[in-house]
Amino acid sequence: MPTLTKPQDPAPARKKHGRSWHRTAGKPVRWWMIALLLVIGFHRWIPDTRWLMVHMVTLGLITTSIMVWSQHFTEALLHHRLADGERPRQIVRIYGVTAGTVVLMVGMLADWWWLTLVSATVIGGLLTWHGVSLLGQVRVALPARFGMTVRWYAVAAFFLPVGAIFGAILALEPADPWHSRFLLAHQTLNVLGFVGLTVSATLLTLWPTMVRTRMEDTATTLSRVALPAMAAGSLVAAGGSVGGWVPVVVSGLFSYAVGVALIGWIMLRTGMRKLPEGYMGWSVASGIAWLFITVVLALILVAARGLHASVMGALTIPFVAGFLLQTLLGAMSYILPSTMGGGPTTVRASLAAINRGGIYRVTVLNLCIALFALPSGMLPSWVRALVSIVGAVAFAAFLPLMISSAKISVAGRRRLMAQRAGGGQPPAPANADADDADAAAAEPKHQTHALRQLVAGVLTVVLAVGAGIAVAPQSAGLGLSGSAENAVQATGNTTEVTMHAHQDMRFDPAEIQVPVGDRLVITLVNDDPANVHDLVFANGATSGRVNPGETAEVDAGIITEALEGWCSVIGHRSMGMTVAVIPVDSHGNPVGSVGHENHGAGAASSADDLQDPAAEVDFNAAPGEAFTVRDPALGPAPNETVHELALDVQEVAREVAPGVTMDAWTFNGDYTGPTLRGAVGDVFEVTLTNSGSMGHSVDFHAGDVSPDQTMRTIAPGESLVYRFEAVRSGIWLYHCATAPMSTHVAAGMFGAVIIDPPDLPRVDREYLLVQNETYLTVPSADQPDLPEGVDAVVDPVGIAAGTPSLTMFNGHATQYMHEKLLARPNERVRIWVLAAGPSKGTSFHVVGGQFDTVYKEGAYLLSPSSPENPGGTGGAQALDLAPAQGGFVEMSFPEAGTYTFVNHSFAEAERGARGQIEVAQ
């Protein structure tokens, strides 16, 4: 048996610095677990989630755990308990690494290289301090059989600071080949060197303890070969990576693989005497197996591809999930109950709780990891999605089981302390012979239970795979035509293509030739710095939304005929974001009908093909009960000269006509944004925040500023400050300026800024009417995650055709037919009018009324006191405004009645551009 002392329950006087230290030091591990689960659950809305999750595991979970448990095992192996006065320093190191990791993530996500450098330096310094501390304990302790293990802990700790240097360099985003070289060196030192050495050194003593048998006789001898081989292999591979020497990297990885193989051999020989039990043993064994497999795969890929970033990218899942997480959680499943104590009975109960369903969980996890590790294209997209969900749930099960185990331990310790405080004695240990006899009798039952869990785990994954194929059979090659002339034999080959989504609304390449019968797998890279894109194929395969700078994979299935793809973000397809997949024979000749005529802007949809949700609108009906009518009344401009406004981009469901609720893209949640008002010389400071799912922006026509920065498109989650001074009077449009602008405006992203002309006369009532038109269609299957209740979306093809579905004042087609504007006879009424478009203007007219004042685009066209209107006898019947123009009219009503205001382009009035003014005594 290894000379590993089992901690005894602390005396009351030592409680402050005994097991309480483990609980305090281990808190960051639980924090990182919870944070990781949250990121996995909300990854769609979080930028750079792949990088974030990898570093939450490696720097957050793994590094913190290593610092806690390497200290624990150092004290146990050296039989030398650290002085209580040293505990605060350990806490500082552990919590310092946690804080440094958080700051590192902030620096990377915010693209603040200096912050990344500072945090990497802090983390490296704290790990160096940790390693020096471990060596100090070796020097003061008496010679111990496993002092060598502690020395390897210290050596491993010194690997991470060097790897952190390469990580900081990567934050500068060096161009290839340096990026690939530094990435491989960074991962080799941190994962293989720091983590791999620490884990391997620990398992020499921990593994026999976990399986409850004696250590293999040759373990010490073999470890003196294995650990140096792994350390040397890490250093050689990292040095070869930086130098760009492929043979050197291959030799380093080979040396490392030999070392891991020796560790695995020691574990195998030990486990042959007594098979591992439950989750803890099989999870750790699986982790080491994945380490060996992944290193061998890395060796093969480097030899085949060279020092390419795709090498380590292809191995991320087996490295992180297969090796790191499985080893960590398996070890914690044994260590936590054992260190928390509470007596033998409590420890057994706690171990049973945390290892519940262990064989089932390990089976599901490893099958999911194995499927996910397959080369891209071998796993259909829906299968991949469902397998990832099943695997994530199996991983997440550890957290509630750990909490359950901890509760058992705490309760047991309290009972034990109460017995001691009352002068009683703990229960005597059970008879060892009786325990052995009971264990032997229970062995067949345990084996049957384990077999059932194994079968259940296999069936769970098989069902997930089957469900994924059932959802999209074509991606698995099961949707091929059955006719004799069209039947295609799958080749078993995969065509892999990297496609870039560009800022100019194009896919590159936009045409892909694929040997007929091949599976097509596309890696979509979103190079657009601000806009979200996706790639959807007509057969249902999709990438999902891809944030700026991120990458996603699309499995388009087996190509048997021409296939069309496009970006489903509204408006992007009509601007040309389409791709044609063309099957070709062995000579490169197209097979079947290619269908080039279906590509381009006209391929998006047709206004005739899709039902217009506004086609059956009753324009005499009142708005829905849940609709809030927008108050058209204008108040005077605020007294302040600096106006601050927050514009929050929100994509929400909004009613725009009775029975028609659309996916509205809004400023501050309303179709038609808030109105700003001020005077010449006032300063407006607008903070734009993008809380939507795609890129958005804002363009204030009232600002005489350079558009380069203030009008730039910002990605989801970003903000900018738009500051301008009003230097000219008038009513000015503001709108989203992100392409396609017509779509964003038609979706509701517009509003008005009123800059009062000098000496603007007071009136009795003042109103604002902003006219716009929208073009609607029913949502299609490739438009995911629409707000609840939406039955209409903007139709870019309808915009191009020029026939609106609705033309509205202030965002609704019938609101002012039922909630009328108010006035009294002989009151002076001013109505500001703005034509927001995107494409239609207005001829504003009040039926039964005449305008004695007309102000358009910053100047009076008609005024009772102007020289051009002697005696004030002139009048106007309409205010004509082109798109983006505005002005106001003034009038008074000599008698009571109901006056209708309209766009005198009657086709637009009949689509909703009308309302009423009720003049009453």
From TrEMBL:
One Pfam short name: Cu-oxidase_3
Cofactor(s) recorded in Swiss-Prot or TrEMBL: Cu(+); Cu(2+)
Domain Plastocyanin-like: 649-758
Bias kind Basic residues: ranges: 13-22
EC number: 1.7.2.1
Region annotation Disordered: where it falls in the sequence: 1-22, 419-443
Keyword terms, alphabetized: Copper, Membrane, Metal-binding, Oxidoreductase, Repeat, Transmembrane, Transmembrane helix
Transmembrane segments: 29-46, 52-70, 91-110, 116-138, 150-171, 191-210, 222-242, 248-268, 280-303, 315-337, 358-379, 385-410, 454-472
Catalytic activity: nitric oxide + Fe(III)-[cytochrome c] + H2O = Fe(II)-[cytochrome c] + nitrite + 2 H(+)
Record's keyword annotation contains 4Fe-4S: no
Record text on subunit structure and interactions: Homotrimer.
Family indicated by similarity: Belongs to the multicopper oxidase family.
Name this protein carries in UniProt: Copper-containing nitrite reductase
Organism whose genome encodes this protein: Kocuria gwangalliensis
